[in-house]
Design a protein that fits this description.
With about 500 residues, the chain is an alpha/beta fold. The chain contains 21 helices and 15 strands. A hairpin with a 5-residue loop joins strand 3 and strand 4. It comes from Lupinus angustifolius (Narrow-leaved blue lupine). This is Phospholipid/glycerol acyltransferase domain-containing protein.
């Protein structure tokens, strides 16, 4: 049996610097004050690294980012926030070598609690060797680590292989103390850059990060973090101005002023005509990227179209410049509400039921297909620079504020043709067939992939209720569904 021991930083991950991951922990698990404090100490951390005091620099970052933080909060950040940034930094060539071995061990300088979920679920590692955070009796991190994190790596790797042969392969950078602590135990060594041969091309792909949380869009390096801190006061003021304009001004004026204030809405396709006596209302079926999807759609159409909502905050409803129809998730009750509203004119619905940040579409609820044949699919997408507009962990009432705090928020709205009668339930198709068809054509328009995931799957993954096995089974589902829909997306 072939085995591998690989360093995480600088090997499986492209970058050696781990400062940004502690910044993420500081921001997402604690808040802006701790985030700013750690950034202030960045020169100290760099000087300690330069003078060979790597262990001390690591302890400073661990202490400032975690001291006093509940263990549950650290686990939540490690589960819902960090994997996205790790995956973006993944060296695919290194991972191909890593996954081709039978037994896989990852060694990291970071606390094990920060990386274990990612490397076991997404990189399919068997074991993780990292320093252990200590917690007090109240479940709060002390900010200290148990033992000497780097010097004990060799002993812990030896323990993992004590009943077997020595590791077949060691992967890492010779310049790092982490790699040097275990490299002599391995029969062979490989160092970056990794230029893999064709024999590695058939290996499995890493499990994708489909659901993730957190407010920050970019990995907060020291420079990016400084920009974020300097921008926040300006962003808050800008968000207040943008939201106020959206509430008090007529819809026809919003696109012009949003451009002046840095925003932009790109419209593609031909929208349907407004409802009239000879032209009844339609149901706009949209992909769900942020809670602002219906508002942006209304601004493009220059009229206030009511939107179906599930779980937005009362604060967001108060700020909303369009009417909202709150559903109960009781099918027959919701069906009656939607029918009643459709009889009055146009209506907007996002049948995914929740947002997804990655290029995937969640499973569409089939309820909309049962209620009308006048269906207009609308592909919504957005781009932001600093802050995500939706969160599962924080207060949802701040979602619109964070969106409008971005320097240049951009929305893309693509109108597809109204579904022909033969593609609706009137032709005898089942509501599920209609919903799946709409999902496929919207995915093809955006270049996304269809999944069979639901709102419950998203929150189950982010909450971690089902553990590792359930997440892997969910990703297995997506593989099957994507393979099924690939012929339709070509």
């Amino acid at each position: 049996m072939e085995s591998v021991v690989s360093e995480l930083e600088g090997t499986l991950l492209k970058h050696l610097d781990i400062f940004s991951y502690f910044m993420l922990v500081a921001f997402e698990a604690s808040g802006l004050i701790r985030f700013a404090l750690l950034l202030i100490l960045w020169p100290v951390v760099r000087l300690l690294d330069i003078f060979g005091m790597e262990e001390m620099a690591l302890k400073v970052m661990i202490f400032v980012s975690s001291a006093g933080v509940p263990k549950t909060e650290l686990e939540s950040v490690a589960r819902a926030v960090l994997p996205k940034f790790y995956m973006d930094d993944l060296d695919m060539e290194a991972w191909k070598v890593f996954i081709s071995n039978d037994k896989r061990v990852v060694v990291t300088k970071m606390p094990r609690i920060m990386v274990e979920r990612f490397v076991k679920e997404h990189l399919r590692a068997d074991e993780v060797v990292g320093c252990e955070l200590s917690f007090n009796g109240f479940g709060l991190a002390t900010g200290m680590v148990q033992g000497d994190s780097i010097s004990t790596i060799s002993e812990r790797v030896t323990m993992l292989f004590k009943e077997e042969d020595a590791p077949t392969l060691g992967m890492g950078r010779p310049s790092t103390s982490t790699y040097n602590s275990f490299s002599k135990l391995c029969k062979e060594q490989m160092h970056p850059p990794f230029l893999t041969s064709q024999k590695y091309d058939q290996v499995l792909r890493p499990l994708p990060v489909i659901f993730h949380d957190g407010r920050l869009v970019k990995r907060p390096t020291a420079f990016t973090s400084l920009l974020i801190l300097l921008w926040i006061p300006i962003g808050i003021l800008l968000a207040i101005i943008r939201i106020t304009i959206g509430i008090i001004l007529p819809f026809w004026a919003i696109p012009y002023l949003s451009t002046i204030l840095g925003g932009n809405v790109i419209m593609k396709g031909k929208p349907p005509s407004p409802p009239s006596n000879g032209n009844p209302g339609v149901l706009f079926v949209c992909t769900h990227r942020t809670l602002l999807d219906p508002v942006v759609l209304g601004s493009v159409l220059q009229r206030k179209i009511p939107a179906v909502t599930y779980s937005i905050s009362r604060f967001s409803e108060i700020l909303s410049p369009i009417p909202t129809l709150r559903l109960t998730r009781i099918r027959n009750v919701d069906a009656e509400k939607i029918k009643r509203e459709l009889s009055k004119g146009d209506l907007v619905v996002c049948p995914e039921g929740t947002t997804c940040r990655e290029p995937f579409l969640l499973r569409f609820s089939a309820l909309f297909a049962e209620l009308t044949d006048r269906i207009v699919p609308v592909a919504m997408n957005y781009r932001v620079g600093f802050f995500h507009a939706t969160t599962a962990r924080g207060w949802k009432g701040l979602d619109p504020i964070f969106f409008f705090m971005n320097p240049r928020p951009i929305y893309e709205v693509t109108f597809l043709n109204q579904l022909p009668v033969e593609a609706t339930c009137s032709s005898g198709k089942s509501p599920h067939d209609v919903a799946n068809y709409v999902q496929r054509i919207l995915a093809a328009t955006l270049g996304f992939e269809c999944t069979n995931f639901t709102r419950k799957d998203k929150y189950r993954v982010l909450a971690g209720n089902d553990g590792t096995v359930s997440y892997i089974s969910l990703v297995d589902q997506i593989t099957k569904v994507v393979n099924t829909f690939k012929p339709f997306l070509k």
